Amino acid sequence: MLRFLGVFLWLGLWVSPPGWSAEGIRIGVLPVVDTLPLWVAKERGLFEANGLDVELVSFDSALERDAALQAGKLEGYFGDLLNTVLLIRSGQPIRIVTTAYHTDAGRRMFGLALAPGSDIDRPDRLVHRTIGISRATVIEFLLDQMLAAAGVPSNQIEKQDIKKIPIRMQLLLSGQIAAALLPEPLLSLAESKGARVLLDDRRLDLTETVIALKKNWIETDPGRLARFRTAYAKSVETIRQEPEAMIDILVRRCRLPSELSAAFRPPVFPASGLPTSRDIELVQKWLMKNRMLDTPLNERDLVFAQ
């Protein structure tokens, strides 16, 4: 409840980004790797080719993005599955229209990094160690899933709430915390500075991020959603076919550190499709266990399947 109260209080201070367009569909995004298909569809003219006027509005934080959505400044939203469920539960009339990123057995997107010089050599040695996370977010959810897969009870480690990822990484690299959960490409950057990755999300088999659109935008003209999905699917295929050509967009739009650009390759994004019932159930069970959700939402109130 405090999280959403903070969002509502912040609304009065929110100012539209420069160049705000009053027409078309505006999708709020974060500067992360998972948004690459959206940027490719925008910059390669794939949305336009499908009769869509799409504006991608980048925010530095999920708080700012959520505030813009709640203020009616956006018709669409990129975010993690957990946060999307909470937004819909709070009354936001959005529906998930496609998965943005699903864990891949061949490529990590999140990982647990150990401080340089750490003596931790196996997961059970994390017990009673301090791990930097962002509480009540997808970061904590993913940590709990990784620990469970490794057979380590999450209540036997010390979680330290460090919301800002650059500060979390700095504390890790300086040895002030034993470990930290980080997303790519910062996970690779931490590795290049001496950190070591102990656990990652490759074995989890779950949806991490999604794209959701306002329900009334979808229902006003149902054909628009089909065209949106067509453009998005073409973008995913373009990334598969031209991975080297994506580095420039990753640096400009997704904040890929320039020192990683020579070796970094974009992940394999899933074809356009919805999260599975298992994914949705897993997230909702975790939210209820952590007292962030009273009762589970019906799947039809979360996704737009047509």
Give the gist of this structure:
The protein is of the alpha/beta class and 306 residues long. Helices cover 37% and strands 18% of the residues.
Molecular structure report:
Helices cover 37% and strands 18% of the residues. By secondary structure, it is α/β, with parallel strands linked by helices. The chain folds into 2 domains: 2-103 and 206-301, D-Maltodextrin-Binding Protein, domain 2 (3-Layer(aba) Sandwich), CATH 3.40.190; 110-200, Periplasmic binding protein-like II (D-Maltodextrin-Binding Protein, domain 2), CATH 3.40.190.10. Helix 6 (138-149) links the parallel strand 6 (130-133) and strand 7. Helix 1 (2-11) packs across helix 4 and helix 2 (36-43) packs across helix 10. The radius of gyration is 19 Å and the shape is globular.
What tags apply to this protein structure?
306 residues, five-stranded mixed beta sheet, D-Maltodextrin-Binding Protein, domain 2, disordered N terminus, 10 strands, 37% helix, alpha/beta
